[in-house]
Each structure stands twice: as structure tokens, then as C-alpha cells.
Design a protein that fits this description.
Length: about 180
Amino acid sequence: MESLDGCCTLDIDTFRSTRDAVEKAPEAGKGSFETVTEWQSGAQAVTRARSFTIETDEPTPLGGKDQHVDPMELLLAALGSCLTIGWVTQARLRGIEYRKLVIKVQAPFDLRGYLALDPSVRPGFGGLRYTVDVDTDAEAATLEEIRIAVERTSPMFDNILRPTPVEGMVERRASVSA
């Protein structure tokens, strides 16, 4: 019987069934995600993703009210979350357990880019660094295998590491005045 805690709660049977189905019919593995972000007030916005909502804001030094997570922090959270899922999946595939797994993602920034004070400074992060704190009986070599496998298969790691094409367009709506 599986425990109610730990890596064993990941539904590895469904994971394997999905992998097998996509292997047999690659088109079954294709899809897309969509989010819709609506400005609220000041620097605040609400993003909807499926049935979930995420509220964002800027810190007060950047004109926000600091009432919600900053969009830059969401990038770090997305990477940390994706890596965490990968670490648990790889543990489950190998039949090992973690007593604790914490992934910390850090990234330095320089506001001169965002504030358009220095064109040689990028507005985004200068780099990303993550640390995995894991309490397990697994050997160091196994943990290194897991790190490599997770980095190779993490969608967020891939999206950040390799430039993903982005294109934008504007749909203008004119207000009807009476």
C-alpha cells in the first residue's frame, strides 16, 4: 500500500500510460496552454489559466502596491515548480523516496535596464541559479542522474535555456462615445 505522503503519491501509472499513448500516437501529445491577463488597477493584474487565477503586482518602489507576487517572481516559481515535479517524477520512476525536497531559484537583476537608464543592461534577469535541498537515502550518483534527467525533460528549463520565439500583435478597440 502506498503512503499518503512523499513521492509515492505521484500517479506514476497515469504518467506511464500517457507516455505510452504519446509514443504510439505522437499527435496525441500535442496541445497548447493559454492564459488571459486582465489589468485591474495601477500595476495590478489578474491572470486566468484554466480554472485558476494568479494576481500580480509590482513592489512599491516600482509604483505598485506590493499586494501580490511580481511577474519576475512568477518566472522563478514556474522554474522551481517544474523542476520539483521533475525531481519527484524521476524519484518515482527509480523507486526512491525523499523525506524533504526544496528547490530554491534565485536570479539577480539590475533595474537600470527596466527603467531604461542604460541600454547595455538587459531589463530581465542576469542569470538563473537553482539549488536542490534533498533529504534522501539515494546515492549522490543517483541524484546527479536525476538532475540531468530533470534538466533534459523540464519544459520550463527548456523554455528558459533556449530562446522560445515570441510574437505579439495589438487588437485596438475604440470606445463608442455618445
